[in-house]
Amino acid sequence: MKALLLTGPGQIELKDIPIPEVTTGKALVKMKAAALNRRDDWIREGKYPRIQYGVTLGSDGAGVVEKVFDDIHKAWVGQEVVINPNIDWGSDPEVQSKNYTILGMPVNGTFTEYLLVNIDRLQHKPFHLDFLQAATLPLGGLTAYRALFRRGGLRAGMNVLISGFGGGVAQFAFLFAQAAGANVYITSGSDEKIEKALKMGAKGAFNYKRQNNYEDLWKTRGGFDLIIDSAGGDQLNNYIKILRPNGRIVFYGATNGLPSKVDLYRMFWNQLTLQGSTMGNDSEFNEMLSFVSQHKIIPVVDSIRPFSKIASSFADITKPNKVGKIVFQV
Ligand SMILES: NC(=O)c1ccc[n+]([C@@H]2O[C@H](COP(=O)([O-])OP(=O)(O)OC[C@H]3O[C@@H](n4cnc5c(N)ncnc54)[C@H](OP(=O)(O)O)[C@@H]3O)[C@@H](O)[C@H]2O)c1
Ligand 1 centroid vs 164 CA: distance in angstroms? Predict the structure, then answer.
């Protein structure tokens, strides 16, 4: 079978490797689709802890269960599934254990024709989605769900700003916040993406590359209760200015690095919260899938490509015109 391996520093290769043997407690899934995350490229670049060479990359995928080892699990055979990428979250719903990892490094991941995975990582694919759409959900959907609901305390009627609309996680945050009845605004560095967001029902938008006065733009709208961000950097202080009192910024990444300063004066006076968030626990993964089914959410797919093009597609993860997820037909 073919699988995309990290073979050395900065090197990824689609290789022929043996189909894994099914062992107790495991299922063999014939993958139908897999999706890229920024994380896969961070790993290729070596910017991730516990990197090992020879590991199959990929956290997102959907497929059909081909085999199980134990008779007790045979009802899974033939089922259409998505894979929960959490490994060893642990018993505290608030925070992951120190053994926590994510499928795709150091454990073999979804960029493969056959995935060997623990039975308890299988979840039924939402009925209204095809395999390509469902494959986009696991990592981005889970991150967005926790950031909005557990960490952000999102409720209907709130003013919410999702930064970097073109991002994989941001797309889910946008769709989920809308479905939950929030007034959703976005930022993006691209007018084309802004146009798309407005067509999809965004209440307003801000181009962080062309505009610089966040305050003027947003104060007429009464400020934000919640801002969801993964860019970080000095922009953080603009977010602090446009929050309503008791508002909250939830960040799940810091792609642009650290802020050189943080406006603590405004933060304490306005009783603001700066809250980190990472992935989500197993219950949140199931809740996220139910939410997607209940609201018939359709993930935004940037492009669908053959699996043979997966290595060369890594260069497109950061392409400026990308909106949503790059997906592979396996
Ligand atoms: N903690 C976690 O569990 C977790 C989970 C998933 C991802 N992450 C991290 O979160 C980040 C995003 O991941 P992703 O998979 O969504 O990546 P992605 O699909 O590559 O999205 C990146 C987006 O960031 C936006 N961006 C760039 N500069 C910005 C700025 N100055 N202000 C606002 N937005 C800006 C861009 O949006 P526009 O194109 O619209 O301008 C871009 O599309 C990565 O650093 C990733 O490692 C963390």
Answer: 6
- pLDDT tens track for 240-297: 999 999 999 999 999 999 999 999 999 999 999 999 999 999 999 999 999 999 999 9
Gap between the Cα atoms of 34 and 79, Å rounded? 17
- Residue 206, beta-bridge partner list: 187
CATH H superfamily, domain 2-137+299-329: Medium-chain alcohol dehydrogenases, catalytic domain (3.90.180.10)
Could you give the strand order of the β-sheet that contains 273-276, starting from the edge strand earlier in sequence? 204-207, 183-188, 159-162, 224-229, 243-251, 273-276
CA–CA dist 85, 39 (Å, integer): 12
Residue 244 tokens, joined? 């309503």
Specify the pLDDT at position 213: 80
> For 143-276, which CATH class?
alpha beta
| Distance in Å, CA 255 to ligand 1 centroid | 6
Nearest of 221, 200, 199, 218 to residue 208 by alpha carbon: 218
- Please give the distance, rounded to the nearest whole angstrom, from the Cα atom of residue 275 to the centre of ligand 1: 17
In angstroms, the CA 288 to CA 292 distance is: 6
CA of residue 223 to ligand 1 center, whole Å: 23
DSSP notation for 136-164: TSHHHHHHHHIIIIIIT---TT-EEEES-
Ligand 1 pocket: which residues have CB below 6 Å?
37-39, 42, 139, 143, 163-170, 187-190, 193, 208, 230-231, 235, 252-253, 255-256, 278-279, 317
Spell out the domain ranges in the chain: 2-137+299-329, 143-276
